[in-house]
Structure formats: structure tokens, C-alpha cells
Write the C-alpha cells for this entry.
Amino acid sequence: MCKKMRTFVPQMKKYSYLLLFLMLFVTGCRKVQEEPVTTPWGSVLEDTTEFNEDFDLAEIQGAGELIVGTIGGPLTCYDYRGQKLGLQYMLCQLLASHLGVSLRIDLCRDSAEVAEKLQSGDIDIAAWPTPGSLTVNAEKPLLDQELKGWYTDSLLAEAKKAEAFRLSSRSVKRRVFSPMLDRQGGIISKYDQWFVQYARNIRWDWRLLAAQCYQESTFDPKATSWAGAKGLMQIMPGTADHLGLARADMYDPEKNISAAVRYLGELEHTFRDIPSRQERTKFVLAAYNGGHFHIRDAMALAQKNGRDPRRWIDVEPYVLGLAQPEYYNDPVVKHGYMRGSETVDYVRKIHERWNGYRGVKTIRAGFHQGNTPQRAKHERKKKYQV
């Protein structure tokens, strides 16, 4: 290449970069001169659309989404078996349905962040921990007017009733079968062959798997919960997708059990840092019911308070404690409030039924409904008193 050409190429690159910068600058400007649009009959079509910076009621309904900011807790919003619950959440769901839009919850760190996002317009409504206390951004007068005209105390009562129903056993549609089909013959259910077959994959006693199945569905393969959990092992649709279980097969007994065992195997792997298989099983069952992230929070609390995070008897008080603000607001807790009493009861009942299937007397150590962090601390002090 001649010297003149070698000089010319870098110059071309330099001008190309300059041209690209100018193009980006022009297209990035707020106002861009657009070519006029001409109709087929020759007149120029003018754009009469007005840009409204106030995202009020009409714009919210047009976008199809209401954004509510809140902090996690039992009176606001919390995770329950993969679904959101909480009194304020239920109330906002009713409001969103009234407006004909979907609901998006923005969980904030604290009340100050909620207030900041409300003022900046990042959220449309703030839901405070006081039941029924919903605040609207000051620049949304039409939404505020709609909310005030819509809200009544009876709606709060309706939200409470809806939440109570979802937390009750009545929310699961199922037939109740005998916990043991033939005690003399050692036959628990008509699904025993699949419990035996698939329990081997995770090296569980098949009777433990049967006990869990009874706790989930009372051996009803058509059982369905309000949240969409289906079948013998009450598998959620999203979990079924993850496990490769076709939604059309969620009521199939064998396929449902097989998928549940795959999920239990994943949880076994998640808690592989717990060396004792006997202890690990309790953590796996707790995670199946309440979510592994909540159980990890309870383990972190146990460790912070000088307890063994790998023993259920030490972690159980903090699973219960996650229903109290002093614990679910602790800095080591990453996933907030949980209904720990239900999870503790779930693990206890399954072990008691499993012991019954094996003819073993139940030892209640580690399964105390009243085993709160405060009580555990008191018992520990008594133990070492002289």
C-alpha cells in the first residue's frame, strides 16, 4: 500500500467515528425533526397527540398496570407457597380488578423508600402497614378520587375473608381418604408401588414419602389448591414446568409423584451442607412447604444467635420467629416475613405420621409449636443454671 493510501485510511476511520457520534447525538435529542406524513389525497397529516407527563388514572388503565409500593409483612405483602398474600395485597388486588388492570407490587426496604418512590412517581399507590391505608401520588388526582369513591370498610373485610380462606384447608379441593388403607397388611395407599419405586432415587424411606403425600393431598390425585397446586404432591404449575412435568399430566398419580421426588432431590442438593441425613430431611420438608429461601433465612438467624444452623431443633424457633418484625426485619434475613407456624406444623405432622406407619413412638423433641426464639433462649439459660 502506498504512503498516501496508508494516510488516507486512518483519516476515513476518524471521520467515520465522528459521523457515528453526530448520528447518535441527533437521534438522542428529545425533539427530532420528523418528515411530514402525506395522505394519499395529498394533504399533510399533523400529529395532534399531546404528551402528558402526569400518569394519572386514564394512563394507568391504558397501560393496563397499577404499581403499588409497600414493605414486606403480614399486613402488607408476603410470599406464601410461591404466591403473594397479605391484607394490603389482597385489597390492592380488589382495586386493580375494579380498575380493570393487573397489579404489580414493588417491595421496598423500608417506609422511607416507599415514600421516596411515591413522591418521584415510580409507584402509583403506597400501601402502608396499617390495614386499609393506601396513599396516592399527589400528581394523580383522578386516581385519588377514584380510590376514595371506591374504598369502604366492607372491602377491607372482604380482603380479610379472602386471605383467611386461602390460608385455610378449605382452599384445597380434595377428597379425604384414610391415612392407611390396610394397617394389618402394611398397605398405606394404592400408590405404594410408586412411593417405593421413586423414593429409592433419593434414598428415602418410601413410607416418609407416603406420609408427605397424605399431608399434601390426603391421597387425592385430583386435589387442587387456590394457588394452582395440583395432584397427589400438590405441585405448582411453575414447578411442574421446571421439572419437565407437562401440565396436562399434573393429575397423573405416577408422574406427579415422580416429579415431586425430582424436586425433593433438588432440595436435598440445596441443603447438602447439612451432613446428617436425618436432620437434612426435616429441612427439605420445610423447604418443600415454605420455600428454601425462608428456611435459609431462619438458618442465618440461628447462626447469628449462637445456635447450630444445621440442626432443626435449633432452627425451628427462628422459622416461627420469621412471623415477628424483630426477626423478619433483621439484616441477615433476605426474604422477609413467612408463616412459620404452618411450616413447623407441616414437618411435625409428616414425621408423626411416618412414625405411625413404621410403628415407632413419636419423640416430640424439636417439634414444639411454642418453641419460639424467646422460649428457646429461656430454656437454654435454665439448662446452664447451677
The longest helix spans residues 3-28.
